[in-house]
Amino acid sequence: MPVIVEELKAALDQVPPKLPKEWRCAPWTLAVKEELCRWGLVHGLYVYAHSVEKRFRQTWPKDKRPRYEWLFDVTCLAYTDEDYLDQVALVAECEWGCEREIYDDFEKLLVARADVRVMVFDGGEIDGADKFSEFEEYIRRFTLTGPDDLYLLAAYCEDLNRFEYRVLRGG
Fold it and tell me: pLDDT per residue over 12-68, tens digit each?
């Protein structure tokens, strides 16, 4: 498994212990975005996510803090010395709503060109025992899926107060 996946899982594992057990979407989304932004900043990337800049005010210089959302809930980019976009290291979507809303957000990740695509969601909203099989089907049926496509799925399991993960690759 790529190192990036293990690092991202470790970052997301920081979220559940920080928050109260009672379920509130906005604080959970903000905590997920903060951890993914922290990962990007540590790796020297330019990070884009809505509502997180003030959380990094004390610890990061102004030119390194996360900027406003750029296409996805979290986006981590690298630029060349000449200031051209060089790499999309990570794109992430976070959705706590119903099953249809989760899959709608996942479709955004299907069209992304990134080293890793991260989908964080409420596992309790997915029907069926396997929370991940429908995502596999979406990837399989998408005609632009490539063999290097890498997805990290993080399903929050409320009864366990932790994420369950699945790593998927394109066809």
Answer: 999 998 877 666 788 899 899 999 999 998 999 988 898 887 666 666 656 665 666
Distant-in-sequence, close-in-space partners of 104: CB < 8 Å, separation ≥ 6: 95
pLDDT at residue number 27: 86
CATH of 3-169, one of 3.40.50, 3.40.91, 1.20.58, 2.10.220: 3.40.91
User: Cα angle at 97 between 32 and 152, to 5 degrees?
Assistant: 45
Tell me phi and psi for residue 153, to 5 degrees: -100, 130
Q: Is 23 helix (H, G, I), strand (E, B) or coil?
A: coil
Kindly state the tokens that stand for 20.
């109260």
